Amino acid sequence: MKTIHSVTVMVLAMALIVACGKDEITDIQPVVDSGATDQTTIDDFSPDRTVYVTFSTSGNATVTGTSSNFNVTINGNGVTIANNGDDKVSYILSGSTSNGYFKLYSLRKQALYLNSVSITNPNGAAINIQGSADSLSKGKCAYVVLNGNSTLSDGTNYASTNSGEDEKGVFFSEGVLYFSGSGSLSVTAKGKSGIVTDDELYIQGGAITVSMTSVARVISGDTLKPACIRGKEAFGISGGALTVSSSGTGGKGITGDGTASFSGGTVTVNVTGSNFGSSGNGGGMGPGGGQSSNSGVPAKGIKFDGSIAFTGSDVSVSCSSHEGIESKGALTIAAGSVYSYSAADDAINASGDITITGGYVGAFSTSNDAIDANGDMHIQGGVVYAVTSAGGAEVALDANTEGGKKLYVEGGTLIVVGGMESGAQLTQSCYQASSLTGNVWYSITVGSNTYAFKTPNITTSGGGGHGPGGGGNRTLIVSGSSQPTVKSEVSVSGGTNYFGGTFNMGGTYSGGTNVSLGNYSGGNGGFGHK
Questions:
Q1: Distance separating alpha carbons of residues 175 and 246, to the nearest angstrom
Q2: What is the pTM of this model?
């Protein structure tokens, strides 16, 4: 396994030449200091001047506020600005065009205010932030402030991309992007990706929606791998709302080569496209499980080559053809809520360890493991509802026993349908129900906390977990800081539903029948269900 280095490490190296005309997968990438590894906000930016760019539906765009240090080219509603001076600039974009773009060459920090602007570029990116006009070295960061309701769209053919330049999506930047504000931005990607940076991407506020129909394909020997959101070096969301949907073959929701941090805000990901080429289902067992063939492009929900940390966001992922959430490093969940559904592979997968210390976690798979760690899995806190209806060798909680790793249940409230990895170390006692009724509401009480969960409509026979006598998909296992009380077929009123409507908090749970619980020590077979 290759080592994924943290993007917070200062890279001191000369820039390599950027390969021309490639998108997403570029064999030679520039190696530079990003200049913005510590997050800042628009409040930290003090502009030297303000430049106004106004697009028009009936005439040419206009640009005001520049000086002799700027080169400005206006071609109808195509606006190109090169900032050749030292000014830090706020660019105010407004107006509307169905055949235009905003392109910026700059090595300075800058701010882009999207003031209810609407830009469609049929031949490329709507917004394109390059380095300087005389050099392809990366620019500094851009603060993108959303005011009002703005829209950006591309076309199916990026025919106007300059030789030697990248133009990877509707909104493309070579430098760091910070999104904030109280407005909204709607991005429609038809040709390539949605919002892409070759550096770091942070969402601190605003409501961003990306809809993508772009498809993976091979262009001049290089594979185009579209994504709604791609923060190449790192991705983070600490506020606002991000909603992305991809229906094209091989399209991903949110991805990057580095790390990801979900510390606030809400994230909704829906990937309905099929895999491209020989991606197939990755599988979840043993070293390298969950990894797809290099010859294909899997359509995943959230995927990062580095570690992923969930520490406060409300995240919901649905994926039709591959993993819902995947980290090629470690994955941690400490706060917030994380829900992932996959109809074809693991709901949540990590090549390294998975550690859950808090928050609310829902993981549902109909074809593979619900939560799959190719390292150790530690459940130490939080509330976890993990379900697989796959049967066979698949289980709801899977650690890499074949590689000498283990599942550790050390704390938290745990609801498992579909069995756990055999050989688990149960520091906190676990209990197994003698039967399971499908497609009904259950309640579980641990101490002073009561929740309701709706069981899947399982109709297939139970299989085995890994190892002799492993728990099958007819098994209900629960655990808590004290022995849980479980009731079946309860009535649920009020409260708030989570995890695709299968988990309720804060409601009133009445009626029902007490469920008999026996001690669970692992390796027990599944029980029949009604």
A1: 25
A2: 0.87
